[in-house]
Amino acid sequence: MPPTDESSREKTLHDVVDLIGVYPMEAFEFVQRGLGFTVQRIHGQQKGEPKASLHVTGQDLCEGLREFALMQWGMLARTVLARWNITSTWDFGRIVFAMVEHGLMQKTDDDTIEDFKNVFEFKSAFDRQYRIEIKT
Question: Is residue 136 part of a domain?
Fold first, then answer.
């Protein structure tokens, strides 16, 4: 019979959410979707290059998450994130590194949680920099 040691099985996103206990599932899902958005924004379509690096830095990810949140919720972005206990770029890093630690995301040897420290201030990044685009 195989061992039933909890540490031997991979954690699911639900497991990580329960283990961390600070951020709801929606926060983790937002970061995952925001990572995809950020990779697409930075690297575009990598056609014909399956082994091309799609790495983004912590700072890049924070900026991408800010842009993604503003696209999703406009002026309510900071309010939605605060409802999920996300009030700084450090919170983005805590979510990312919780997923990295449990095998749900990958990092390079150069990536650290410090990359997420004070990337921008939420109030100015979400309130003062938001512009409504009018398509003509």
Answer: no
Work out the number of other CB atoms within 10 angstroms of the CB of residue 95: 27
Which pair of structure tokens corresponds to residue 98? Answer: 């919780």
Residue 78 to residue 69: CA distance in whole angstroms? 8
Placement of tokens 């503003």 in the chain: 70
**Position 5 in a domain:** no
DSSP per residue, 22-39: SS-HHHHHHHHHHHHHHH
Place of tokens 């983790």: 28
Q: Does 120 have pLDDT greater than 90?
A: yes
What pTM was computed for the model? 0.82
Number of domains forming the structure of the chain: 1
Q: Which domain holds residue 73?
A: 10-45+53-128
Residue 2: inside a domain: no
Of 2-11, 32-41, 59-68, least confident by mean pLDDT is 2-11
For the stretch 95-104, pLDDT in tens is 999 999 998 8
17-30 pLDDT, tens digit per residue, is: 998 889 999 999 99
Residue 83 parent element (H or E): helix 77-83
Query: Quick count: other Cβ atoms within 10 Å of Cβ 30?
Result: 22
